[in-house]
Amino acid sequence: MNLENIKKVDPAIAEYIEKELERQQTTIELIASENFTSKAVMEACGTVLTNKYAEGKPNKRYYNGCEQIDKIEALAQERAQKLFGMAHANVQPHSGAQANMAVFMAVLKPGDTVLSMDLSNGGHLSHGSPVNFSGMYFNVVSYGVDDNGSIDYENVRQLAVQNKPKLIICGASNYSKVIDFKKFREIADEVGAYLLADIAHIAGLIAGGVHPSPAGYAHFVTTTTHKTLRGPRGGITMCDEEYAQMIDKAVFPGMQGGPLEHIIAGKAIALLEASQPSFKEYAQNIVKNAKALAQGLLDNGMDIVGGMTENHLMTLDLRKTGKTGKDMANVLEEVGITANKNTVPNDPQSPFVTSGIRLGAAAVTTRGFDEAAMREVARIIATAIKNSDNESVLKQLKEDSLALCKKFPLYE
Ligand code: DSN
User: Fold this and answer.
1) How many Å lie between the centroid of ligand 1 and the Cα of residue 177?
2) Inter-axis angle of helices 153-163 and 181-191, to 10 degrees?
């Protein structure tokens, strides 16, 4: 990482960046929504493209001087369309929340009904949480998961028939089972609703062929680019051709100004990387590693919401330990493992305290962790939780996790 100029201009920021690099290199990253981009993606995000205004879309801009920008953005669009099998892609949304907002703006009016997964059951803020625009301006009806941590499709159907939503959202930020997009589309068709599949968490798995694709089922597909897809931070909204203009207008001028073309170049590179055979292998390894982690945790006596995972993530259910997600996420940080506290279905604790910890395998798989390493990670987690008050055990575990990090170096 070349910080030569930052060091000269702003040594404080240079120091914080260097320390953050060291943190990423020396800790085990299990936050399910994070990953490590390639150096090529990072290079693109730090280029002269950050200087350019390009409101509008390729070949239809409100500013001059967009010849190269147009080529970059068009390439990113084409690659997204091809990778996910969708007719149209708008690669300008700054984030996943805005990728979703574009769909709301394109097809809904304030007060319209949306059927989506409840946040505390694994949904997402921008799918209708009362503290988000989506829950403030729309009438939101929620579905959850059953005791096995799975979506009850018959319950979704009944809610759809009773409430006649204009938009149904599938896709989650904490759901460990395969999503049946075909069933969701059948429900949407039965009640005349649009179907939005938010694939933010599983985009890399879909690109790598280890999760079914929503193409052909969802009218709209949104994603972030920085989770399993391993690109820069940002969003993409995709749709059938007939909705392309509505989506483009919703993104600009509806809710954003100038697109971040340096990030769009990073998205283009990540999409190219995700179309390579090596990415298929990466996606397969994510799922293998997640399963090895889950099995290791179960073997060490821990509970997981819904048992064995089918994708890249899982939620540890701490209820029987009498400990909270908040405290145990801090204990894990003490032993060199980064994760986030998360509610479990019907959580007796508040969302700030929680009874769960969400764990994901995408980032560690990027640095080469294999199934044996994941079983060791499971041992470290379970031992830390059982011995959360024993400083000498925690100290040893921190050394164990550092040894794993050294075995699988990052950005060297
Ligand atoms: N906050 C992200 C996650 O962690 O899943 C989703 O936007």
Assistant:
1) 17
2) 20
